[in-house]
Amino acid sequence: MRPSLFIAISIGLFLCPIAGCTHLNKHPSEPPNPPLKIAVGPVTMMAPISKSTTIHSFDETPPSEIEPTVRAQLIEEVEIKAQRILTEHLALQPGFEVVPFDEIRRLQADIERPQGKWDEERLRQLGRQAKTDLVVSGQILDFGAVQKKYWVTGLVLHSGAGLLALGFATGWNPAAIGAYVAYELPDVFIWGGGAYMLGWAFRPVRIEVQAIQITHCEGDIWVDQELKITVPRKTLAAFSAEDRKRKEVQLGVNLDRALEDVSAHAGEELRLQECTPEGRPAKRKTLPFLTLFGLGH
């Protein structure tokens, strides 16, 4: 392979996670007409949260005897907040008629709650009760730290592609390579979360959202995933000096940003699908290959 071609491919791999390759070259489609009626179901915390202190800033660390209760309460608060935020952002999309948050919470209470995320049958039941065209639900895959299973593939591909591109471009100049390694070293801490410096916060939040069609034929038709790692200084500047340092504030900002982007993608892509002779939706949008390595949008 020619060096110039290798550099181009490497740079492409390096930039894709940043630029959002799966949504490049997509033209906005016309809003649904008539509008699609949508129910926003539960958003479930799937990220491993070992301690409450990883997602909340306390003046005093909770005693060990109440730590499990505090952690469970905080996780539930995040799940409810995420469901409400997703409802609000989807309601802003042209052509979407979203069932109010309070009404869906009332309907949810009549359905047996599972351990972990809601299965497709429960979500279909929610959609039937709400008389909607679609049911949207979500999972929080990373919250405060990128899961270690993504580190080897995601972090190595992210940093390695840039290193290869720089190496071929500079003839593997030791000074340039050394400077790049020093520049990339903070990524280990960024991917692990837990950093706040110079007014910037590094609190990874990865959200995955799915949609199930109810009208005409039932089945899953759409999925999207967003990862937010940094919280810009100008965003945190809207909070008080004390609040901008708090983990729950920083994580809340990235949760909102991720859900806003997912909702925008839904506004462009989410439409009713035709039905197969077997009574299933004919098409289903899947996640891109790079998300397997923690390199989504």
Structure, described:
This protein is of the alpha/beta class. The chain has one domain: Rossmann fold. The chain is 42% helix and 18% strand. The chain has helices spanning 3-19, 67-91, 101-108, 120-130, 151-170, 174-184, 186-192, 233-236, 247-269, and strands at residues 36-45, 96-98, 134-143, 195-197, 200-213, 219-231. The model is unreliable at 1-22 (pLDDT under 50).
Can you tag this structure with a few keywords?
297 residues; alpha/beta; Rossmann fold; six-stranded mixed β-sheet; 9 helices; 6 strands; 18% strand; globular; disordered N terminus
Short description:
This protein is an alpha/beta fold. It has a single domain (31-146, 193-291), classed as Rossmann fold (3-Layer(aba) Sandwich). The chain is 42% helix and 18% strand.
The CATH homology group name: ABC-type transport auxiliary lipoprotein component
How many domains? The number is: 1
The share of residues in helices is: 40-55%
Mean pLDDT: 82
Global structural class: alpha/beta
> How many H/I helical runs?
9
Pick out the low-confidence regions: 1-22
Name the shape in a single word. Answer: globular
- Give the topology string: H per helix, E per strand: HEHEHHEHHHEEEHH
Beta-strand content estimate: 15-25%
- Overall CATH class: Alpha Beta
Distance N terminus to C terminus?
28 Å
> From the 3D coordinates, which CATH architecture would you assign?
3-Layer(aba) Sandwich
User: What profile does the largest beta sheet have?
Assistant: 6 strands, mixed
Number of strands: 6
Backbone CA Rg: 21 Å
CATH topology: Rossmann fold
